[in-house]
TrEMBL record:
Residues 49-142 form the Late embryogenesis abundant protein LEA-2 subgroup domain. Residues 1-26 form the signal peptide. This is LEA type 2 family protein. It holds the Pfam family LEA_2. Keywords: Signal. PROSITE patterns: PROKAR_LIPOPROTEIN (PS51257). InterPro entries: LEA_2.
Amino acid sequence: MARLFTPLLCAFCLLLVACSSGPVRRISEPAASIQQLSVAADGSWSVDLRVQNYSSIAMRFDGIRLELTTGGEAAGTLQGAPQLSIAQESADVVTVTLTPTAAARILLADTLAGGRSLPYTLEGELNAVPTDRGRARDYRIERSGVLSPVPGLPGVLR
C-alpha cells in the first residue's frame, strides 16, 4: 500500500504545482496605423488612428506623439492624451485633429482630385502602461502605409 501511495502523492503534488503558475503576463510592442483621414472644410485633417495592443494583458494608452509624413511631405505631428484602455490582443480607434503643413495640404488636395492613393509614414512614440500594475513606458512606432480615396465620400481616405 505504501509503495502505491508515494507515487500517487508525488503525481498529485506535481499537478498542483503545474496549475499554480497562472496565465502568462506578456507585454508586447503596440502598433499604430491610420484607419481613416478626413479633410474638414477649414482644411484641417481628422485622423483616425488604429491603436493595436498585442500584449496578453490590458494596456492604457496615455500619450500619442507621431510625426506624419504624406507622399514624402512632412504633414505635422499627431498628438494626444487619449487615456484609452485597450483589452488584451485588441485594438481601438483614437481620433486626432491635425492642421497640416501647406505642402501636405496641397499634396492631399491634388491626390484627392486625381483619385490616387497616398503613401504615408508614422514615426514617434505611444506611451502605455499595463492597467493592472506596472509603470508607463514609451514604445517606438515606425509604420508605413497607403491611403486610398473612398468612393462616394469626398475628402476621405482609408
